[in-house]
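[Automated response] Your request has been received and processed.

Submitted sequence:
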Amino acid sequence: MTRDASASADERQSDGFVRSLGLEGFEGETSGDLAQRLVAGTDNSIYQLQPALVLYPKSGDDLNRIVRAAISDPRSPVPLTVRGGGTGTNGQSLTSGVVIDVSRHMNRILRLDTQARTVTVEPGVVLDQLNAALAPHGLFFPPTVSTASRATIGGMVATDASGKGSRIYGKTSAWIEAMDVVLSDGTDWSVTAMPAEEADGIAAGSGLAADIHRTVLGVARDHAETIARVFPDLNRSLTGYNVRDVLRPGGPFDLARLLAGSEGTLAITKAITLRLAARPKHRALVVARYASFDTALRDVQTLLAAEPSAIEVLDDKVLALATQDILWTGIETVLGGPGTEPVKGLNFIEFVGDDPDAIDRAIAKAEALLAASPHRAMDWRPIRDADTIRQLWLLREKSVGLLGRLGGRQQGTAFVEDTAVPPERLADFVAEFRAILDRHGLRYGMFGHADVGCLHVRPALDMAVPTDAALIRPVSDEVAALAKRYGGLLWGEHGRGFRGEYSPLFFGSELYPALEAIKGAFDPLGIFNPGKLARPNGRGRIDRIDAVPMRGEADRAIDAGRAEAFDRAIACNGNAACHSWDLSEPMCPSYKATRDRVQSPKGRAVALREWARLASERDRGADVGTALEAMTEEVKATLDTCLSCKGCSNACPVKVDIPTMKSRFLADYYRTRPRPARHTLMAGMEAALPLARRFPAIANAVLSAPRFRQLARARFGLVDLPAIVPARRGRLRAVPRPAAGRKVIVLADSFTGAFDGSVPEAAVGALRLLGFAAVLSPSWANGKAEHVLGLHEGFSRKARRAQALRARLVRDGATLVSLDAATGLLFEQEYQEAHPIASAPKVLSIEAFLSEAIASGEVRAAPPASSGSCRVHLHCTERTSRPETADRWRQVLGHFGFEAAVPALGCCGMAGMFGHEAEHAELSRSIFDLSWAPGVAGHDPAEIFATGFSCRCQTKRFAGFRPSHPIEAIFARLKDQAA
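Generated structure:
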């Protein structure tokens, strides 16, 4: 790896470090690529600090090798910062040195002892991944965080994380049985609780471990009175460094209590052994609505008498944003009903346990308390349905991301987001907190763990505006002082990170130097996450909150045109919902298959922001040509693996719409570069399809010819092209059109009509048998490929024609119905953006049309029929764009005698032409194998239905059979009943 003359000192230092790594036998991956370093340079905070190097260790031994390489030259030690999920809100994992990313490879569950109720994991294991593995054994790891789908256990230990339920379960540190760590000299140390006498024996020895035990024991004993006075009696308490719990009077010496919350500043974790709990068998929720947020907060103290496992509070800002999220479909009936007054606050009151009768009694007590409370709720509702409870908690988990959509360029910003005070003082504290924010003219949303006094606040700022960025200092100072005055903390849950400058305020002038001595004993050279929490023996620096580079500073350089075109990239707040461990979630199949964060919406957003900044600088005359060219190619590379599935466009809490920005980037990219021949082919393909539909035998003879396949691969990079199977209007006449009945026009998009014609045939036939005057529209060129490829002029022409077709078809009152989400949604989104129509006629999906017709009685009750089971595999685009689709298909298929299951599956990996592109064939197969292959394995192919044309093609390619579209099964059943 070479560096140019402009490389930073950290980058030049890293060159020698890489050589030392090689000598140590490092087996992991090393990356100096700009895109990788950019992604590792941001988290969920306001900061952006580009590391010199990113390492991806493959084993615990690699961690030892890294540390030994870092100190190979004691005169110039290399700073090391470990990164897990990258969801920190205060820059915990950011550094200009070397980032060690343990999430890519060190994510194994090593041992599970169900009898002892312990599990040993590597630090990169994700919380949801762990709990999914424990669920079959009736166990779980209790600490719950809102980022559970991507937060790693190592990161949870580093911040001593807690969340919902901490009132009864406590923090992460309460569940640590043992830790295996690498010390700053590269040696191993196993951490377990031990009698104080045993710790004294270790302290009497020599070496680094002895120094550590001697120093920590000395601090705990010599400052015992000060520690007892300084540490607040809170559920959250002080983290980094917890010298109170490392040695309790008469208790064991437990170094894990100190390491938990130390944010990687004392040692590097190789493995963690955790204690587990039995998973509660029953769960219930009471949702109470209030006319004011203050009333909701004050009612918490009353409700605690019901002994809930948790009380979570949300304000009206979060509730309003929830109505714009895909989750709202499933929870609107609970949260969205009319109230006597506008709803300004919500309390979620949870009860868990193994005795359902006890939970019922607790709910009854909570309802009695609500009815008698002086802080009256407007109304409340007990919820026992497990799926509704899951959806409500998912809303609460998404609150952080939702506040990134407050409107305009200002968005909810993390910097004072996790204060904690005694719960009984929370309402008064919040009133003063709000006064601070109001005085500075800030909008904000609030939510949090009201039962333990922890509040999450995200003031709305545009960090690219200097006056907004300048508010970080005064607001932080005022809130820190306020929290201190209320006997609380500035950091109650998310760790300190770059807020370490406030440590002396909360630890005090006597205790803070003792913490610096602990840092010095563990890390005398200051290599572990320097600048955070404490300095080794008072030497070095502690970063200040407004002296670290911020993302907004870089965004400020993006010109207005690019800022508008790529605004969703700038809006990405690093919440990293796109890094979810769950393979059944549709957002970002390329990330799920590669675990490369550059190939995720967050990674692509970061790269696009940097490209936009450099391009703007170039236009202003800056000499950035070399850097811009390199960045342009890195952006192109990461966008090439984007399937344009639009999962991020809807599932991302802040709607980071990568496919749209990809289209815009490619349009710009190819303004000065020749397009590949494949782009020309794709742009012209729809024009050739009418001829192929007319002569399918000839077209298929050409498509299947070996020489054509060789040409397609060599010249255009295309493989496994589908056969032409057109809709035949002659077959439609086999089912006569009713003389009466509502006119319905089934839209024949060029893809389905040419390659999967039995689907539109079945749709028309089924609708006619149901009494509708259904016809098939003229085939229309949808332009989807041109939009994906950034061929905007050609797409605009097709969009205009499609909109004209839509307007023409409804002139006589016809209803328009689409069969495939990928093309049907164009009418709602891309066509309207390109050529908007005021009061545009609706284009209903086939299941939406049938669902409404069944509900209205327009479709008569189906005659008795033998029931049959089926599995409906949804197109990933409709799962995120139309979350009600699953329920609709269950209802519709149930009406026709099918018992339908709709399994949660991710992307199939086809996504239009992506799966047919030779360079992506392997990735396409990998994506299919993640959830679709297990989803079809072991099931009767006749019982599997797939709503997407791409999905049916992909299943036929890799599973050997073509699933039916649900409408084909309905048509077949209706024909049998009519016979």
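Summary generated for your ticket: Residues 1-6 have pLDDT under 50 and may be disordered. The CA atoms of residues 402 and 653 lie 5 Å apart.
If you did not submit this request, please reply to this message.
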